[in-house]
Amino acid sequence: MNNNISLITGLFLLGATGLSQAQVLEMPMEAEPTEIQDATTQPMEAPSSMEPAPTTLPGRGMSMEQVEERFGNPGEKFERVGEPPISRWVYGSFTVYFEYDKVIHSVTHK
Fold first, then answer.
1. What does 55-74 look like in DSSP terms, one character per residue?
2. Neighbour tally for 104: CB within 10 Å
3. Contacts of residue 88, Cβ cutoff 8 Å, sequence gap at least 6
4. How does pLDDT run across 66-107, given as a tens digit for each residue?
5. Three-class SS of residue 87?
6. Phi and psi (nearest 5°) for 87?
7. Nearest to 92 by CA among 65, 71, 64, 62
8. Residue partners of 99: CB distance under 8 A and separation at least 6
9. How far apart are alpha carbons 73 and 59 in whole angstroms?
10. Cα distances (Å, whole numbers) of residue 21 to 15, 17, 18
11. Residue pair 53/95 in contact by the 8 Å Cβ criterion
């Protein structure tokens, strides 16, 4: 315990000594600030080919019917593969993976 207190006291004194010997650096200032162009002040338009990502994605456990009702017809439907059967539906900005007829995962496209 005493060793810890001595160590802390020593570190404190070392830090205090270092502060007393600190030097102030003076840097010249420009006479007048230069104007910086801010690119964020002008609105950016998304290319027309890009579809905005949905605020929500199909959730795990939703049925194919529920997904279709809520998000519409997908651009592509890929057939079931493997056992258990996994299929996927590709929408403009996201893809939904199904096991049998239930959502197991949804991902957005980059």
1. SS-PPTT-BHHHHHHHH-S-
2. 14
3. 77, 78, 95, 96, 97, 98
4. 999 999 999 999 999 999 999 999 999 999 999 999 999 999
5. strand
6. -130, 165
7. 71
8. 84, 85, 86
9. 17
10. 10, 7, 5
11. no
Quick check: pTM over 0.85?
A: no
Structure tokens belonging to residue 65: 């019917």
- Strands 76-81 and 86-90 come out as antiparallel
Which percentage of the chain shows pLDDT scores above 90?
48
85: CB partners within 8 A, 6+ apart: 99, 100
Supply 37's token pair: 């162009």
Q: What is the DSSP string of 12-49?
A: HHHHHHHHHT--PPP-PPPSSPPP---GGGSPPPPPTT
